[in-house]
Amino acid sequence: MIRISTLFIALVVGSFSVIQAQAPVIDGVYNAGEGWMLAGQGDANAGWAGATAKKLYAAFDGNYAYFGAEVKADDWMQYIFVVNTKDGGGSTDAWGRTISYNHANKPDYLFRGDIGKSNYSEWHAWNGTQWTGTGTAVNGAGTEAKSTFDANRDGFIEIRVPRSIIGFPGLADIQFVITGNNGGEQSGHGNFDSAPTDNVSTSWNAPGNATSISIYASPAILPATLAAFAGEQRNGTVQLSWKTLSETNLAAFDIEQSTDGRTWARTGSLKSKEARNGSSYDFAINRFTQSFAIFRLKLIGKGGEVSYSNQVTIKSKANANIELIGNPARGAVKVGIHQSKAETITGELLNMQGGRISTVHHNHGGGSSVMSLSVSGLAAGNYLMRVTTGDGAQTMKVIVQ
């Protein structure tokens, strides 16, 4: 298969851990500032039953892949994100829709959901002989789906998928399909419309209901492969360093700074060394007087492509200290760890009665780092975050939105 070169953030750092970069919020609303890449488009014409697949988007960070689509469709219809990341794959539909997958390399994963009302989603994976998988809108593996539509049935669909499901390498091939809610050879539903545009159904019954599709979209090529991003504070100077494994059409790095992980300001820039096999970079911020700051890299391609690294947090004094970052929490509870010694630190999310919900073990390398614990799919409300180090345990109240 031909893989698409895309930005890959490896969680490999020296003394500092990293937390998830800016990524789409799964709220059913398209936001150009959330890092979406336009991967493919439909032909702007309505397909079968008035369905129109307009645009297909993709994005990803260190933990998740994101897929989105602009569509016009009725609420009884369903959608499928067709994903190929490796050799092999299945040619039949996992849910009995009259769709044949005849791509040069068959899809390995299918993510299906309802277009209207329920925000139900389900994924199936090809195991070499058959489709296997699981479902529900937010399941144990962390998939999530959301869509919103106006009165004219124009809307946006987006899903989030753990990269552990599809494999950690960058996204490869994708296609978005609008279909119906009925399976079976005689009157099952086929491809109503797709992005990229492909064959569509011509009738409700056999043989015109059956469709064969074969056209993938490829995400935009991003400019670099980033292997590490770390930082530390020494005598009032913040020293940031990072390495690339490859650089393709990369113009520059902007260094951005924040105090809350939401609002960012540019604090400097470095030109790319345009090293095809990668290179190392250093950037110093003198007279650092803040008690706490978060840094990230903005990677800028020669064609205007933009993506972001994960984040590094710096505290001016490395005394033992534990603090919540961004409370209320959305998506993940983030805890800043500031202590000189290296150790494995345990974080536990508890309900208000003290019952344990989830646990994370964080490898703190000494200095400052951020421990992150996902709360996706958790009901909004009050919880407790207990952090245990070699010096004891500290419990903090956290609000999940």
Detailed description of the structure:
This protein is mainly β and 401 residues long. Helices cover 1% and strands 50% of the residues. It is built from one helix and 28 strands. It has a six-stranded antiparallel β-sheet, with no helix packed on it. Strands 1-2-3-10-9 form a five-stranded antiparallel β-sheet. Strands 16, 17, 19, 20 and 21 form a five-stranded antiparallel β-sheet that branches.
List the helices and strands and how they pair.
Layout: E1 37-41, E2 52-60, E3 64-72, E4 78-84, E5 99-101, E6 109-114, E7 121-126, E8 131-135, E9 144-149, E10 154-162, H1 163-166, E11 173-179, E12 193-195, E13 211-213, E14 224-234, E15 237-247, E16 250-258, E17 265-271, E18 280-285, E19 292-301, E20 306-308, E21 312-315, E22 321-330, E23 332-339, E24 343-350, E25 356-364, E26 367-374, E27 381-389, E28 392-400
Parallel strand pairs: 5-13
Antiparallel strand pairs: 1-2, 2-3, 3-10, 4-6, 4-11, 6-7, 7-8, 9-10, 11-12, 14-15, 15-18, 16-17, 16-19, 19-20, 19-21, 22-23, 23-26, 24-25, 24-27, 27-28
Give a brief rundown of this model.
With 401 residues, this protein is mainly beta.
Beta fraction: over 45%
Task: Specify the structural class.
Answer: mainly beta
In the predicted model, the low-confidence regions spanning at least 5 consecutive residues are 1-22, 136-140
Strand order of the largest sheet: 8-7-6-4-11-12
Integer tally of domains: 3
**Helical fraction:** under 10%
- What is the CA-CA span between the terminal residues? 41 Å
SSE order: EEEEEEEEEEHEEEEEEEEEEEEEEEEEE
Count of helix runs = 1
Average residue-wise pLDDT: 81
Shape: globular
Please tell me how large the radius of gyration is: 23 Å
Largest sheet composition: 6 strands, antiparallel
Q: Name the assembly state.
A: single chain
- Compute the number of strand runs: 28
